[in-house]
Amino acid sequence: EKQSLQKTNQSFEEFLSTLPRDYGWTPLFDCYLYQGCWYYPFFLRGVIAAQQHFEAQPTDIFLCSVPKSGTTWLKALAFAIVTRKKYSDLSSHPLLSTMPHECIPFLEVDVVSKEHANQTAGVPLLATHIPYHSLPKSIISGGCKIVYIFRDPKDAFVSLWHFMIRLAPKDATYISLEAALELFCKGVSYYGPYWDHVLSFWKASKEAPQRVLLLVYEEMRKDPLPSVKNLADFIGHPFSVEEENEGALQKIVDFCSFENLSDLDVNKKGNYRPGNSAGIENSAFFRMGKIGDWRSHLTPEMAKQLDKITREKFGGTDLPS
Ligand code: A3P
């Protein structure tokens, strides 16, 4: 068994060496272009395994996003929605002691074989950052529901820059904002190009709106109730009139708010993937949670540069540009 594992490792390394390669924003890893998307090797290995072996169940619900677009929030909300009957008493809720990422299996890391993790997790939710066009075929052919969250690329960029600095070893030279922007604009970023990722799900949502729901971070932050209600309906766990009258929807929105989750001990002091080179403190997933924090970091020229790409890429769509 050891030998076959080694063989797989070797062939993966060989395969990597055939792919376009660029700087991964951190001295820890380079990133590689596979099917139009930039991956770190750690994730790419899982993406390929998922493409080869993963068999989705039609009842699976996929929470999808490009990193730093609100994944943590979406996971918390979806998990709280589907488990709300079991944990009507919030004082024993798993999210009080488990960070949202650990409540939901991550396809390209936790669920890479035919061994289906959703039964063990007890909820039909899975998460992935894989762009739509590279998702394992069974997710599409199985008609699985897909929820996709995205946000203003300027805020996503600033969020990612901070995240990569948190991920870098303490003594490393951090990537400058300028260098990161240059890479981001040419598409080289964690699961980038950012815009192509969003477009892949946008197209899918136009083709199959009953199967693919888009959520906009800014809309949710300004007025979470309609989006969260919509999310619950879409994933087949609608709030009854009675529940709404009792404030169950508001309770979940408040419980999953940035203010509440970021203040929990588990999210302030815990660690995600400890011992792994991609491990990081849970607090790195709860930075500001603001709309427009880019204003504190980007010069007007930098913002213009990003907006120009957004207009070019999203022109002709109904995506915010
Ligand atoms: P900022 O870095 O702008 O603060 P992801 O979960 O995809 O990694 O995205 C992380 C971004 O979502 C971070 O943005 C983080 O602060 C924000 N975030 C995390 N939890 C949130 C929540 N419950 N509500 C709103 N935003 C949240």
Automatic annotation (TrEMBL):
The keyword Membrane does not apply. This is Sulfotransferase. Belongs to the sulfotransferase 1 family. It is an enzyme of class 2 (transferase). It comes from Dillenia turbinata. Keywords: Transferase. Residues 58-317 form the Sulfotransferase domain. It comes from the Eukaryota. GO terms for molecular function: sulfotransferase activity. The lineage of its organism: Eukaryota, Viridiplantae, Streptophyta, Embryophyta, Tracheophyta. Its EC number is 2.8.2.-. Signal peptide: none annotated.
